[in-house]
Amino acid sequence: MITARGLSRALTVVTATALTCVSTYAAATAAPTASVPATPDTAALAGSLTKQKLTWGACDYGDPDTNAKFAQPNVNCTTVKVPRDWHNPRDGKTWNIRVSQAFNSALTDSRHKGTIFVNPGGPGGDGLPWAAGMQIRTPDLQPYYNYVGFDPRGVGQSTHAGCEISQVLSDAIKRLQDQSKLCSETPDVKLVNTEQTTYDMDFIRVLLGERKISYVGYSYGTWLGTRYANTFAAHTDKVLLDSALDVTEPTMQRTFGFQTTARERIFTEELLPYITRHNDLYKLGTDRNALYKRYFAATSKLSASTVKITWIFSGASNLFYKSSAITDAADVVVDLINAGEKAGTTPSSPPSSSDPMTSSTAEIQPADPAGEVRATMSKIVADSTSTQAQKRSAQRLSALVAPLTDLSQVSRSAVDPDNVKYESVFDFVACNDGQWTQGLQYWNDLNARKTKEEPFAASLGSFVAPPACAFWRSPNTNPTVNAATFPKVIVLQDELDGATAYEAGSVTGTRLPGARFIATDNESSHGAFPYSTECVDRPIIDYFLTGKGPSKKVTICSAKPLPKETETFEMWGTLGPNGRERPAVLQPSAAARAATEATSDLLALGGFEHDFAPFLRQYYGSAGVDLGRKAVAEH
Prior knowledge:
Radius of gyration: 24 Å
Number of strands: 11
Strand content: 5-15%
Strand order of the largest sheet: 1-2-4-3-6-7-9-10-11
């Protein structure tokens, strides 16, 4: 269990831990560098492409519900042609980047303050809806700014890259090794990286006629925004980095290594205490430590796929992205405990098992995890000794996965073609941006250790295989930030963020030259702004309106209460002397609340693509992934 700590101490200790590998960065940024590299001239590099005329028309985000949520009369879309390779722009090869714009003021308008580019992270998140979404969410800024969303190269409606991989090999690790080697050597795939995307962004700026752009980036978008501001400092205005990766690192490896730690923290420090505070609702007792033991004792009687698939289809996994999902997660804890405790006494109940990629010799076996869930739950319902609570839990779990069991065999991955086109933008960007530690032994040892240290993350299949980057060679690295030219930015981080951990965001907030850091104590959402409290939102809004950031280097704000509560409770550690104060809550419009919920769903869907889509695709093909997306979106 994670122990609590005082906030100023938490900031010091956590940041110090996260900084063990960045002493060279600190030394490099302690003083301005002697020379300032020239800003790349994307207009000159693009040549004749600079003369292209943009044709704006209605936006189609590819989904009727998304179209309805983000329908705005002043938002239109266009396609921008960019050089396929900005290091060789005259080879005649171009890619398409799909762009949306919420237009509010012309460049000549006296009130025009610029254009805000928005990126939702991933890597691989669809950016096209975010011009409309951010406009609705920030009414204080709308009269003064235009907004731009875009699908980065490889994503959504922009040009895709991929590599054809074999599904024939039964050795899953060998298949991963071959896949990573092949993809890392594919020319188009090499060009799906952060550096190339920053050039695309700057060229969009050129075509829009803006001298500078402002920027809001969430999650991986903080990595992208930092790279843009570092490369194109002369063209960068205001920047908000929300839910930050550790941008001081040469690769993303360390940041994503913290992700499972953050999710363990949410489970132990937020979810379990919440359940024990509401024993009248959940009836699992008031002792958090006893509940922790009871949960793992019960789930050990269920297969790993049962636990994982339940967290996905109940919407409980959304808790890693938005704290409002805590009631869904609490219900799942109740149901898994009821089912697991009964399954352990039910004859012929399935033994606990793990996902198939557990060793270099593991094979993917045709299976139906959802069918396994329903079979187990049917026995519990039929058992005359089951309590009414156990039967209700079994019925709910069975109903959650019913859509998967209704899929025909034709949709299962067992009959997918031998070769498929692999288009994981997450892997492409994460691996291309800088080489992760190579080799199977390192990752096997790490996964074995973290399985013991982080049992909750292990129960969701986080440590069953090495990442693709473990076998992906790249000559690239994230460059050191130039302190002489880097703009003054704001970094916003929630204390218990389950996607980009505090250990990463606090380093970015306190180590980027000139940055101002706002941390929200006891909040676990991912993608915080706008948060609808004065403490969080007002300094950010004022910064975009006046250019002046907070006077203090670090500002600590208090979280809003969780659902069903009127008080904010302490979790993990106190971030400051005012952490327990009740925040001054703003009242956004109904449209702004709806847009915030919709964009939060987009962030959760982005996480689903990396965390859970591969698991569902393995057993149920693309149809199963579609059902998973629907379940996440509906919660």
